[in-house]
Design brief:
- The complex is a heterodimer.
- By secondary structure, chain A is mainly β.
- In chain A, the strands form two sheets. In chain A, strands 2, 4, 5, 6, 9, 10 and 11 form a seven-stranded mixed β-sheet that branches.
- Helix content of chain B is about 0%, strand content about 50%.
- Chain B is mainly β.
- In chain B, the strands form two sheets. Chain B has a six-stranded mixed β-sheet with strand order 2-10-9-4-5-6, with no helix packed on it. A four-stranded antiparallel β-sheet of chain B has the order 1-3-8-7, with no helix packed on it.
Chain lengths: ~120, ~110
């Protein structure tokens, strides 16, 4: 059974930093591109970032480029999101999601971890 | 960047109704279009990928069509468990933009 479990969400002040983690199991982690998607309270889904199977390619939404860094440790079946220079508008539930490989759809999602940026 | 729009933003329907949701891309995305269902307090669930392929385990009352810039999600006979918000997402570009969502609620 595929499982994705996010952690690391907390309350942080504007300008602060945070690292989110996503522990994967039930599939061959290093075969797949992985994504972060976020959802602000009461709002829609916003794609944030992706990382290729080997970590060699990373992409970011314009809203987080230069502030967030996605990474992975295939030896630990883990995905990460380093979030710096946090803003109030970064407040959201952050999901990690697995890519289907050929089609680029997101076929498995975690339950999300809540990041609140507030003074 | 590719922008996605959806219509309507919300709709009210009854059990048994046929429901159609439209998604439009700001440029051609071939068939790189996916549909998700999200219920309150839950993670999104993949329904349709590559515009018209049904994800494993998803009921056959869900179907998708379209290519290029215009796409449709159809629920042939709405069931009580289908009341949710539906999002389209393009995977043509690496920045996988989502549409704003369509909320389907009970009439």
């Amino acid at each position: 059974e595929v499982q994705l479990v996010e952690s690391g969400g907390v309350v942080v002040q504007p300008g602060g930093s945070l690292r989110l983690s996503c522990a994967a199991s039930g599939f061959t982690f290093d075969d797949y591109t992985m994504h972060w998607v976020r959802q602000a309270p009461g709002k829609g889904l916003e794609w944030v970032s992706l990382i290729s199977w080997d970590g060699g390619s990373t992409y970011y939404a314009d809203s987080v480029k230069g502030r967030f860094t996605i990474s992975r440790d295939n030896s630990k079946n883990s995905l990460y999101l380093q979030m710096n220079s946090l803003r109030t508008e970064d407040t959201a539930l952050y999901y990690c999601a697995k890519d289907t490989r050929e089609e680029g759809a997101l076929d498995y999602w975690g339950q999300g971890t809540l990041v609140t940026v507030s003074s | 960047d590719i922008q996605m729009t959806q219509s309507p933003s919300s709709l009210s329907a009854s059990v048994g109704d046929r429901v159609t949701i439209t998604c439009r891309a700001s440029q051609s995305i071939s068939s790189y279009l996916n549909w998700y269902q999200q219920k309150p307090g839950k993670a999104p669930k993949l329904l349709i990928y590559a515009a018209s392929s049904l994800q494993s385990g998803v009921p056959s009352r869900f179907s998708g069509s379209g290519s290029g810039t215009d796409f449709t999600l159809t629920i042939s006979s709405l069931q009580p468990e289908d009341f949710a918000t539906y999002y389209c997402q393009q995977s043509y570009s690496t920045l996988g933009t989502f549409g704003p969502g369509t909320k389907v609620d009970i009439k």
